[in-house]
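hey m, so remember when u said the tokens were messed up on ur end? i reran from scratch. heres the input so u can diff it against urs
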Amino acid sequence: MKLKVGDKVRLTGKRWPDKDQGEYDYPARGSVVEVTDVGENGAYASGGRAGALTMSTGEMYEDYEFEVVEPEPEPEPEAVNHPAHYNADPSGIECIEVVRHRNFNIGNAIKYLWRAGLKDEDSEVQDLQKAIWYIQDEIERLNG
């Protein structure tokens, strides 16, 4: 079994104690540790705390049994409340946090400028044109 850095493994062999032995000793059987180094001498986990997991050939040491833990799937972006393009600004702020304090036209203009091209790269010019429309509508409203 070839391990790579970042793999998570659950320690299952009899070499691992029944309970955690503390910071400088071996973690308990059943613990999940992360592979932190893979080199010519084998694979190691948790900064060496769990010690060697495999030999340089990739074979497990006797009594060091473990099983690879499958990573949790990435959650699907929520399409209604927090789609990915809502949080794409480098500030990490969602546009709505700013625009909810403005009137409709100004808020929409800011929204289209803020997210121009983020929802769909091909629509960046259209997003900018929509922002201009809302700005012009606000100017007309103010001029009466």
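this time it looks ok to me. Residues 8-69 form one domain. if urs says something different then somethings off w ur setup not the seq
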